[in-house]
Structures are given as structure tokens and as C-alpha cells.
């Protein structure tokens, strides 16, 4: 199990010159074939022979004492970036991929549906790309309160008794979005949230689906067509996305450490999963098996 990870280099191969034992790194947890057409085009996230962490039988997860990965999929952490923060490079890369898919431009408005780790990370990258107005959407008051303090975004709580169209209209009115938002990033996978995202967009706006939910949902295809929306799927991350994630961490663009709610020892991993299942905190982390370096993995 585990694909969001950082660690300390234990050993390197004879051809590796940019890393050495003892270096702290963030890990990009997938190994593409590097030879198929998608890989050669730079879209290695679409490689059919990808070996991704925690996807048995191809690859073990990162929640282990040792994890073997090609050296160019390890990103050295600057001295001021902790291993805890290094774990957040992976969700930041997911966010970078989503924001780049919808082509956020300076001065645009962006609605982000879902205020978990991915949604919050999307708000950071959208701000980096120059978004003027960012609206975070969630059903949980605590998450919306956190989002406001985390990245100074506007927030919106949908009415469960209203239709997606009604919620979209109210969101547009309350946030003075005129004909609608320029871009919407859906980070929940919820059918009603997906529909709200489509209805909140202006004509010609851009939509990206980065949250995963049910494999089949009802989709407002008429609204999509009449507004001539640019609709995108998003799967993990590809060329350049981890570089953006590392830039966010290195330049301290946002208080990423504040996303980390608790850190559990490996032996207490079931407690971490249960806390996450119950919606406790934003990001719960688990120390790797046998890791006991308190100087590098301190409790927050």
C-alpha cells in the first residue's frame, strides 16, 4: 500500500550521479515503459505498461522499509523542506496536472469542487498560474473554514436539497462570477458535484475531472454541448508536473505543512486508515516500516 511518499536514499546504482545515500527525496511512484508511443510523446501517465506503486502484482507500495524506483523519479528535497512536506509533492503533482489541463490563465476565475488534499493543492497551483478568483466547494464546514485560512479562497457550501443547476446559480451570484467561472476542477467524483461543475461554467469554459468516484454517472451533456465546454479527464501526472510540485515546496508558496493532520507509526497504520475513513483531518501520514529517525520525522 501507499503511493504518496518521501524517503531517504539507501543505495544507488552505478550510473546514478545526482543522488547519493542519505539524500532525502520525494518519490514519483510510477515506472513507465519509456518506449511506447505515449511515453515518447511525453504522456507517460497513459503508458499501458506503467508499473505504479501499490498496484499489485506489478509493484509493491511505498509503505515499506525499502522501495526501488528509477533515480530520475526521485526528487531531492531542499534542506528546508521536511520529509513530511515531501510526501505532499505527489498530490501537488496531481493538482498541477489538473490545472494545466484546464489551462488556467492570469485573471481567470476557478471553481474547485472538493476541499480535501487534492482540491486544496489545486487551489495552490491555480493561484500560482494567476487565478484571480478561486472558489472552494465542499459539504463540510470544517474543510471550508480550513480552505479559507489555507489559501485565502472564497468558499461555497451546496444545498443538498437543491438541484445542481440551483446550486450553480447561487454560487455564481454569491461570488459575482458574471456569466460563470472560467474553469472548474472537480475533485470529488460525486455525480451531483460533477453536474454542478458543468452548470457553473461560462460558455466556452473548461472542465477537468480529477476526482474518482463511481465508474458511470449521469452527465449533463446538453449543457456541455450548448456552452461548448472544453471537457478533460485527468489521470495522475505527466512530464513537468512533479517539477511544478517541487517548485511549490521549495519556494514555500503555500503553508503545505498545515495540511498534515497526524503522523502514525507503521504499527498503527490501521488507525490512520480509520481516521481518514472517518474524515478526521486533511492528510494523515504513516511512517515507513522501521523508520525511527526522530530528527527527520518529528511529530507536528
What does this structure look like?
With 300 residues, the protein is of the alpha/beta class. The chain has two domains: 5-91 and 239-289, Medium-chain alcohol dehydrogenases, catalytic domain (Quinone Oxidoreductase, Chain A, domain 1); 103-233, Rossmann fold. It contains ten helices and 13 strands. It has helices at 37-41, 83-87, 89-102, 117-128, 141-151, 164-174, 191-200, 221-226, 241-250, 269-277; strands spanning 5-8, 24-27, 30-31, 51-52, 74-76, 109-113, 133-137, 154-156, 181-186, 201-209, 230-233, 260-264, 283-286. A six-stranded parallel sheet has the order 8-7-6-9-10-11, with helices on both faces. The longest helix has 14 residues, at 89-102. The protein is globular, with a radius of gyration of 20 Å. InterPro entries: ADH-like_C, ADH-like_N, ADH_Zn_CS, GroES-like_sf, NAD(P)-bd_dom_sf, SDH-like. It catalyses: xylitol + NAD(+) = D-xylulose + NADH + H(+).
